[in-house]
Amino acid sequence: MKLIIKGGRLLDPASGRDETTDVYVQDGIICARFEPDKSTEIVDAAGKIVAPGFIDMHVHLREPGYEAKETIATGTAAAARGGYTGVACMPNTNPVADNRFIIEFICKRAAEEGRVNVYPIGAITRGSRGEELAEMGDMRDAGAVAFSDDGRPVSDAGLMRRAMQYCKMLDAPVISHCEDQTLAAGGVMHEGYNSTILGLKGIPASAEEVMVARDIILAAETGCPLHIAHISTAGSVALVREAKKQGYPVTAEATPQHFTLTDRAVTRYNTAAKVNPPLRGEKDVEALREGLADGTIDVIATDHAPHTFDEKNVEFDLAPFGLVGLETAVGLVWTELVHTGILTPLQAVAKLSQHPARILGVDRGTLTEGSAADITIIDPVFTQTVDPEQFVGKGKNTPFAGRTLQGLPVITIRSGLCIYAA
Ligand code: DOR
């Protein structure tokens, strides 16, 4: 089990390395230089980027319960094709992952059928109903890496504070879906000029921002690591920037859809662009890009949210929120952020590997000697037009169909074994 990846541009944010070199792998581990023998596999990576395996810390795998949308097998196959070696999966399954048995089930299914590493996230409250805390300690023991009611907010501030006190003890982050439901009430897209023109009920920026502010205050008070999921507004970016300046234990993620598209994508009632939080305005997209560049936003995550064709092929008001992201994310990062000079390749790699690994506390995200050989190889000039029919994930609900992307994953390696090659 020997592998040499030859002549690529190694980007390892943990050690700051950015150099053309060979990477040596033996028995699934990054190791020191060795002489190849007949059984050594050689991968030619000239002109390619060799990075620590990417981790998407915000994915909906839908199993158990919603297997028509996605399964652990199909979702992790989509992840491998998208250049990911690991995903953290959200608990809004059916039943909700709010107890140790569901966490154990996910780990078992992932071991049997998962193409990539799967890190389960447990629910904060029972059934994610926001009424009483779930058995977080039990879930932590069973392998939950973080806690979230993603898809829904924890509206009760007292309950969120208690959850943070427990999570601090459990040394696990709370991942917050920030949405004040009294402000968002019934909205289906960003509140602004376009919602008025389309006659659709809007979700104001304040619906997110008041809860970002609340949760930052609670994180400061409790000392619990808080990770803000899918940050979407300029105001939220400013709040997180200030929280970091104050030294509070706060991190944040942005999705490719939120740093690429505005609410104009909803024109013609395109349900593929219906997502929560909604696609926002130009100034918000600008602020997200600034937040990514200056380090306010630590992570790029997809919020991969597959739905069936029939569920999305309805009136805008009735369609579920969500779009798929695993198979387009890296191409969007390179096209929108790296080739435009907003992020250096090393910064982009850090937000896709080192930072999510650190936040989740998983032993990944670096290619230093002795680490697991989870590796993503990117061809920065490879160009392809997004065709949802080519997706290996079940969901085809993307607003990026027909968009040409440059800079794509071409080989994904997990524990020294190739799990995807273009
Ligand atoms: O658009 C979304 N879809 N946002 C969420 O927070 C949940 C997700 C889903 O589960 O479909």
Helix-strand layout with pairing:
Elements: E1 2-12, E2 17-26, E3 29-31, E4 41-44, E5 49-52, E6 54-59, H1 72-81, E7 84-89, H2 100-113, E8 117-122, H3 136-142, E9 146-147, H4 157-170, E10 174-176, H5 181-184, E11 189-190, H6 193-198, E12 202-203, H7 205-222, E13 226-228, H8 234-245, E14 250-254, H9 256-260, H10 282-293, E15 299-300, H11 309-312, H12 329-338, H13 345-360, E16 375-385, E17 404-414, E18 417-421
Parallel strand pairs: 1-4, 1-5, 6-7, 7-8, 8-9, 10-13, 11-12, 13-14, 14-15
Antiparallel strand pairs: 1-2, 2-3, 5-16, 16-17, 17-18
The protein binds (4S)-2,6-dioxohexahydropyrimidine-4-carboxylic acid.
Residues 60, 92, 150-151, 177, 275-276, 303, 305, 320-322 line the site of (4S)-2,6-dioxohexahydropyrimidine-4-carboxylic acid.
Bound small molecules, by name, code or SMILES, are: (4S)-2,6-dioxohexahydropyrimidine-4-carboxylic acid
CATH architecture of the largest domain: Alpha-Beta Barrel
Average pLDDT level: 98
CATH homologous superfamily of the largest domain?
Metal-dependent hydrolases
Strand content: 15-25%
Total DSSP helices: 13
CATH topology of the largest domain: TIM Barrel
Q: How helix-rich are the residues, as a percent range?
A: 25-40%
Tell me the total number of β-strands.
18
Counting structural domains, the number is 2
Q: Name the assembly state.
A: single chain
Structure description:
By secondary structure, this protein is of the alpha/beta class. It folds into two domains: 2-49 and 372-391 and 403-421, Urease, subunit C, domain 1, CATH 2.30.40; 53-360, TIM Barrel (Alpha-Beta Barrel), CATH 3.20.20.140. 31% of the residues lie in helices and 23% in strands. It contains 13 helices and 18 strands. The strands form four sheets. Strands 1, 2, 3, 4, 5, 16, 17 and 18 form an eight-stranded mixed β-sheet that branches. A four-stranded parallel β-sheet has the order 6-7-8-9. Helix 2 (100-113) links the parallel strand 7 (84-89) and strand 8 (117-122). The protein is globular and about 65 Å long. Residues 60, 92, 150-151, 177, 275-276, 303, 305, 320-322 line the site of (4S)-2,6-dioxohexahydropyrimidine-4-carboxylic acid (DOR).
